[in-house]
Amino acid sequence: MPVSVRKYDLVVLGATGYTGKLTAEHINEFLPDLVEKLKKLSPKRLPPSIEICVPMAENLNSLARKTRVIITLLGPYAKFGTPVMEACVKNGTHYLDTTGEIYWVGQMVRRFHEDAKAAGVILLSQIGAESGPYDLITFSAVSKLRTEASLKTKELIVSINESKLALSGGTLASFFNMYESIDQKTMTASLQPWALSPISGRKAPNAANTFGLRRDKTLGLLSASSPTERQDRALVHRSWALLDAGNLYGKNFFYNEYQKAGGVVGGVVAKIGTKLVGASLSSAILRNLIGKFSPAPGEGLDPKEEKNFNIEIFAVAVADEVGPSETRALSKLRYAGGTYHITAALLAQGAATILYESGLVERVGGGLLTPAVIGQPYIERLRGVGLSIDTVLL
Ligand SMILES: NC(=O)c1ccc[n+]([C@@H]2O[C@H](COP(=O)([O-])OP(=O)(O)OC[C@H]3O[C@@H](n4cnc5c(N)ncnc54)[C@H](OP(=O)(O)O)[C@@H]3O)[C@@H](O)[C@H]2O)c1
């Protein structure tokens, strides 16, 4: 069935889960056009409905055939994600997920990118708090340098100033599944800087000192303690490669991510803490213990409490210049809400951008793409729901 006349514009798979509910609520609150505008345009169109879909190929193909965009929250993705993506590619349905299971993303890139490109299907993976904001803030800072100073970027430095995390049971189950299903070698390979990128960029030395600290003249004291640094870097580097084979960002581009350090001691402690959490997750005994005291799949912090958290991320794009001058662009991303609320916003507004931004699909083509490839229209939509990215040239 042609994409324009499908029964559903948007389907949320896994809407009964913790993040799925938040996503459905976001759609209900912020995308009334999905219901109201369509009602006016086409009075016979069906109101939102619920379908029970056991995620097997046959059912997923049938669902994908009648849908324009699918958001899937069936996690762990390494267990349930592949047939959903396959059904979307086969049936010309755009797709979004919020996985943090980067080794699985690498497998999906290798398996589906070319087919999706040929079919003009947009696949967006890692659209969550974990990687989405970092890709978009990078795009914003790099674009400022390029458009207002005609300069390419040599380094993108991120400072996570605030991003309190209360893990849901579903996220923990996905972490546990990851540590149980792959060996350390596969995990390490999947986290390499250019692991998701079709071409490789430069090798960059570790910019932090032995204690994991770095002082930046714009961002202040930073600690190399972000638990998601390597996942985020791999996605941002994929954007680098997809956007004119690295020429849009600059041939010498490299991404580095840190947490803001209140002081030297705090920064070192944060670094040790991140290492300890990583080590505990690698141990089956400790995973069992953590599991006993953590929320079960489907559960998480009371969403009202999660909404009171805040996210603040700053990023500096450092120009690739010869000589002593160092032009910079500073981006500030802010959101009133926690990591699960921002994930819901990123997913719903990503889907809306694909559905409503005229000419987008033709402009970006298909493939396993990234938020930065969707670019400015996505950023504008997010601004409309309180996720702001403001950028200045320094
Ligand atoms: N990267 C990020 O920033 C980020 C942020 C948020 C979430 N996530 C990821 O998103 C995923 C979902 O997280 P969550 O906390 O929302 O998990 P959750 O609450 O456990 O929800 C999982 C959903 O998947 C459904 N499901 C699971 N197994 C199924 C099966 N065999 N058949 C049919 N449906 C099945 C569940 O349905 P039932 O209710 O029927 O069990 C539920 O709707 C996880 O992988 C998590 O890591 C990532």
UniProtKB/TrEMBL annotation:
Pfam families reported for this sequence: Sacchrp_dh_NADP
GO cellular component terms attached to this protein's record: lipid droplet; mitochondrion; plasma membrane
Residue spans crossing the bilayer: none
Domain called Saccharopine dehydrogenase NADP binding: residue spans: 57-123
InterPro entries referenced in this protein's UniProt entry, alphabetically: NAD(P)-bd_dom_sf, Saccharopine_DH-like_oxidrdct, Sacchrp_dh_NADP-bd
Gene3D superfamilies documented for this protein: NAD(P)-binding Rossmann-like Domain (3.40.50.720)
Signal peptide segment: none
Alphabetical GO biological process terms: glycolipid biosynthetic process
Entry superkingdom: Eukaryota
Family note: Belongs to the saccharopine dehydrogenase family.
Protein name: Putative trans-acting enoyl reductase
Organism the protein comes from: Lachnellula suecica
